[in-house]
Design goal:
Blueprint (H helix, E strand, L loop, with lengths): L2 E2 L2 H23 L4 E7 L3 H17 L2 E7 L5 H13 L5 E4 L9 H6 L12 H8 L8 H12 L8 E5 L6 H10 L3 E5 L6 H6 L3 E4 L17 E4 L3 E2 L5 E2 L4 H4 L5 E2 L7 H18 L1
Parallel strand pairs: 1-11, 2-3, 2-4, 5-6, 5-7, 7-8, 8-11
Antiparallel strand pairs: 9-10
Helix pairs in contact: 1-10, 2-10, 6-7, 6-10
């Protein structure tokens, strides 16, 4: 029987520590830690994410500035708002909620956020620093995964790690973090040949492809650590991950559930990055 990696409990523990750091920052600097969130349009999932982020900020004492713009807002107007937030001394982190409406140039908008305020860890400089194993702000989800491994005493050093998925948000930074932790890393994707065999050789398997229950027991090595980043719906509309949890849980040594695994850590690492950005400011 595998050990469940409890992301919810670790997130709660980390948020208590962050609340203390926020108090110290206020006492030392005489001002609040501030996070600005920009939401353009009416995307229902984005609205839920933004609401959760604002609630999480309140929990640890971070002041949140929420900007909800109509879907027809122009490129110029969004860029002007971002520039305003870059100049604001009481804003330490800026987050533009993705996806943006199709008429907006996402890359141009994100490029206006300086690395010091890029609490998502998406800008080219922060990604470049991560690739060169330099201190930097790291993308929230993969950073959360590393914190989970650390908490459970799972050292990637010398282990074979397979990352299934190559997105800029999870797959690529995850691979770099594991590589920086001295794992031997393979990144798999839709064009990978012998996918089952590659995954089945992994000591640590991180899955982030957005396909419900894609990873089955025959793709998992006996005693492997399985990290499921997926957030999907099964055939009955029930929340599930990219891993067939019921089939894999008895084969893995450690496994993250969905929900309650990686999910709670993502927003917690956003708070962590915001506090870090404030302390460095």
């Amino acid at each position: 029987m595998s050990i469940l990696i409890d992301g919810k409990a670790l997130a709660a523990e980390m948020r208590q520590q962050l609340a203390e750091r926020v108090k110290q920052f206020k006492a030392q600097r005489g001002k609040e830690v501030g996070l600005a969130v920009v939401l353009v349009g009416e995307d229902p999932a984005s609205q839920v994410y933004v609401r959760n982020k604002i609630r999480a900020c309140e929990e640890v004492g971070i002041r949140s500035f929420a900007y909800r713009l109509p879907a027809e807002t122009s490129q110029q107007e969004v860029e002007a708002l971002v520039d305003e937030l870059v100049a604001a001394e009481n804003v330490h982190g800026i987050l533009v909620q993705l996806p943006l409406p199709k008429h907006l140039d996402e890359r141009k908008i994100l490029r206006r956020i300086p690395p010091a305020k890029d609490v998502d860890g998406f800008c080219a400089e922060n990604v470049g620093n991560l690739a060169m194993n330099r201190e930097t702000i790291v993308a929230c989800t993969p950073f959360g995964v590393m914190k989970m491994l650390e908490k459970y005493g799972i050292d990637p050093k010398g282990k074979s790690a397979v990352v299934l998925g190559r997105s800029n948000i999870v797959g690529k930074p995850m691979a770099m973090l594991l590589l920086n932790a001295d794992a031997t890393v393979t990144v798999c994707h839709s064009k990978t040949q012998n996918l089952k065999e590659v995954c089945a050789a992994a000591d640590i398997l991180v899955v982030a492809i957005g396909r419900a229950k894609f990873v089955t027991a025959d793709m998992v090595k006996e005693g492997a650590v399985v990290i499921d980043v997926g957030m999907d719906r099964d055939e009955n509309g029930k929340l599930c991950g990219d891993v067939d949890f019921a089939a894999v849980k008895d084969k893995a040594s450690y496994i993250t559930p969905v929900p309650g695994g990686v999910g709670p850590m993502t927003i917690t690492m956003l708070l962590y990055n915001t506090v870090l950005a404030a302390e460095r400011s």
